[in-house]
Amino acid sequence: MSALTRPKLSSVKQKPELPPEIYRQAVDQADLAISITDIKANILFANEAFARVTGYDAEEIIGKNESILAAEQQTPPRLYQSMWDDLAAQRPWSGKLLNRKKNGELYLAELTISPVVNSQGNTTHFLGMHRDVTELHRLERMVRNQKVLIESVVDSAPIAFALLDQTGRVILDNQEYKKLLSDLQVKEPAHTLLDSLLPLWHDALVKEPERCVFARREARIDRVGGRPRWLSVSASVIEIHSDDEENCFNIVQQRGLLLAISDVSSLREEQERSRAAVMQAVLADEERTSAIREGLSAAIFRLEEPMNVMASAVSVLYRRDPLSAEALDRALAASREHLELLRQVIPHHAQEIEVRTNLNEILRDVLEISTQRLLGAGIVVDWKPAITLPPIIGRPLQLCMLFKALVDNAIEAMNIKGWKQRELSLSSAVDDQCIVITISDSGPGIPSERRHKAFEPFVTDKNGTGHHIGTGLCRAQQVVADHGGIIDLEASKSGGCRVIVEFRLDGDPI
Ligand code: FAD
């Protein structure tokens, strides 16, 4: 190195040397039980903390083997085997061992052993560091036991629980909830239930979870190919402590929503069965009254036609034969009076009050009521309900009659001698703020040119060509219109008839 490039002595920084005594004092005074052994684990050095933890003074422990601390028969031999395997491979070893103090007391030691390797690469000593973790372990076990206890209590409860964080993620649930998950076959039952009971829950949970609190609200869940389930749901807000590392020094709390879900299906099923029976009786009565009403209306309608012809004939006859014309006029007037009397005895529609009505429930009732006829006609039913359906404000009996009339039409259309394909498909869905009900049959269908006439009063082909549309469709259209909805006919996939009924969820007419 030339004189030019050689650094000045004053500019070379000397690495500060730590006096060996400091090393010794640091190790001696450390709050960790430290020992240094030869390669056979014979103790050469032990610090003050080692004496505190084990009860052995340095003088009495030096020269003894570390195995003096072993609690006989307590630590599995394979643990020592793996310890010595690691040390032989010059790898540090960490683990927990059960030790015995000088006074015979057992304690759990969390121990780390590091091989001390010389410049030739040989292990010359071992450095052992351990601390008594008995109390920590006891607390850990207590927390673990309590967790297991709480989990088994929560799991054995006959109620499903789901705890949602503020983003709506389910962070805790129990066995009943898991059963619900596999039974309902939806992505997250808690979300399905909240969607049905509290449509704006997601937003509310983020901004103001208190708005999501409710008690014992019932949701009806309709499953394809299964019986419906009724679930009673309560929601309450609870505080959740964050266990993220970054929140170690600050207690961060967020609010979660705890859902408690109990199954009230057997009670509701019982009620549903008796309601369907009552509905069947009321419907039968209403059908009889309707038949009288429609029969009389049709008779009056048909009688009025020739009477109108006669009235024009009378006005012509007055010029030629006033006496006969007068007699005929009187007869006509008398007939009109009789017709008016007839009109007055037409039974009125019973007034029904509007209530929150679930159309899945109505459609199930209709299928229940029609079971005998469907079986008798050998018709296979495919019922695809929306899993949850918001209620509409409507008249249940009127709606039941509407859908019964549509199902009856479908049955009649397919129940023709020799007709092979006999399938009835019903579905409900929510589409853009509307509930859409579809009823399709695999019958002969209605030719497109006749479809627009099908809703006219007294139009029926039932006794003629075999088409299934009768006065029922006119009445059906009236019921749909009374509920602010629309009804339409089109050809089904199989060439049969598909009736589509739509109701707005906000109640406004479509
Ligand atoms: P041991 O006869 O000691 O042996 C158990 C198994 O280890 C056998 O399979 C044997 O083949 C193998 N083995 C033993 N010594 C060696 C060796 N030198 N090289 C390779 N394999 C070997 N044990 C505790 O119970 N508590 C402690 O706190 C503890 N601290 C230790 C600290 C250090 C620094 C070291 C090096 C070891 C420590 N040990 C401790 C391990 C201890 O030395 C014993 O191995 C252990 O206690 C089992 O004792 P034992 O008499 O039942 O069986």
UniProtKB/TrEMBL annotation:
Residues 19-65 form the PAS domain. One of its GO terms (molecular function) is protein histidine kinase activity. One of its GO terms (biological process) is regulation of DNA-templated transcription. It is an enzyme of class 2 (transferase). Its EC number is 2.7.13.3. Keywords: ATP-binding, Kinase, Nucleotide-binding, Phosphoprotein, Transferase, Two-component regulatory system. It catalyses: ATP + protein L-histidine = ADP + protein N-phospho-L-histidine. This is histidine kinase. The lineage of its organism: Bacteria, Pseudomonadati, Pseudomonadota, Betaproteobacteria, Rhodocyclales.
